[in-house]
Amino acid sequence: YPSEFLMQKVTEDNQIPVQLHVSVSLQYVAGLKGNALVEFFHGNIAEVENEELRHLMWSSVLFYKTPNVEVMACVLLSTKAIYFLLDDSFIHADEHQSDFWNKENSDCENSSFHLSCCFVLKLNDLQSVNVGLFDQYFRITGHSADHIVTCLTRDSYNTHTFIQQLMAVLSLLARTPSPEPVDKDFYSEFGSKNTGKMENYELIHSSRVKFIYPNEEEIGDLAFLVAEKMDGLTNLQSLNILLYVLAFQVNHAKGSAQNTNSLQPKTLILTSSDLFLFDEDYISYPLPEFAKEPPKRDKYQLVDGRRIRDLDRVLMGYQTYPQALTFVFDDVQNQDLMQNLTLDHFGE
Question: What residue segments make up the domains of the chain, in order of their start?
């Protein structure tokens, strides 16, 4: 340790997504390569001398206590814990976070140091991992509200790789074995006898950590919600969700010096007839066991919805990933105006 393969892998993975801005301190971390990165981990982050760095990933993260603040993080997985190296601007983003973070470094405010805070989730405290729809994100749950973090990878490959690495590391943990399970048939294992509703698919790891994956019903619920937003214009049976992707909506803000682009996280859903943008709550659902009341907002909140037949053109940027798409719709007040004009004009 560390092997040549690991050094090459963490060096390749140590790249900040180009669409997101990070602080100087995190830019320094992103500039480290190979052995320097491993030495940085042991000198500044690792809590135990004999722990090994296994995986590195850059991702946006959300905390359960601050569900409205999405922040960039360097996520480091070791044989003992998951470390979230956070942008120092996150501390000042929300007044209610002071108790959560216990920040006591006001003396350093005006110095030349670039501070980062590191949130640590020990693997022994890990209880469950909820994987989001189409592997666009995953939520890690510990034993309290302080220990719930969602990683918005917006990339199924990154999600899959991290989950695989996490399972491998959890296999190294020495935990007391669970009691032998009683033999159950399929229906009692996956279904609730009271409601007859299928539960989400659960995989219980040998370390007793639950990995929970969405089942078909979540897509069905989403399709029903989308149909509801369409004011019953479509038949639910014929409504198919073709695409679900976590994206950003670009808002052009005209600044005094230059035009700046602010990126608003959105969930884009494409059906066979419409295009929708939703604000989605990625951190509160499904409800943690200790939650005493439901979240203040719904899981999906409609922001915008347009009919595909009103789509005039799609403009594609030629920059590298992430690709920017501009959807241009016909700006018609009455949705049925075009259809009626055509019938009147060409009718007998």
Answer: 4-103+111-174+195-212, 216-329
Residue 73 host element (H or E): strand 66-78
What would the CATH number be for the domain defined by 216-329?
2.30.29
Residue type, 300: Y
What's the pLDDT tens digit per position in 244-295?
999 999 886 665 445 456 889 999 999 888 899 999 999 998 888 888 888 8
Distances (CA, A) of 195 to 191, 192, 198, 201: 8, 6, 9, 17
Report the pLDDT value the prediction gives residue 106, as an integer from 0 to 100.
47
Place of tokens 């993080």: 73
Q: Is 80 exceeded by the pLDDT of residue 70?
A: yes
In this structure, CATH architecture of domain 4-103+111-174+195-212: Roll (2.30)
Q: What is the pTM of this model?
A: 0.81
CA 179 to CA 125: how far, in whole Å?
20
Closest among 102, 89, 106 to 24, alpha carbons compared? 89
The structure tokens listed for 339 are: 């259809």
The H-assigned helical ranges of 102-215 are: 156-170, 186-190
- CA torsion 142-147-152-156 (nearest 10°) is -20
Mean per-residue pLDDT over the chain, rounded: 81
> What pLDDT band is residue 193 in, cutting at 50, 70 and 90?
very low
What is the arithmetic mean of pLDDT over 159-176?
89
Same fold? 4-103+111-174+195-212, 216-329: yes
The residue among 50, 57, 64 whose CA lies nearest residue 83 is: 57
8 Å CB contact between 29 and 58: no
For residue 82, give Cα distances in angstroms to 50, 123, 124.
Answer: 15, 7, 10
- CA distances 298 to 229, 230, 239, Å, are 14, 17, 22
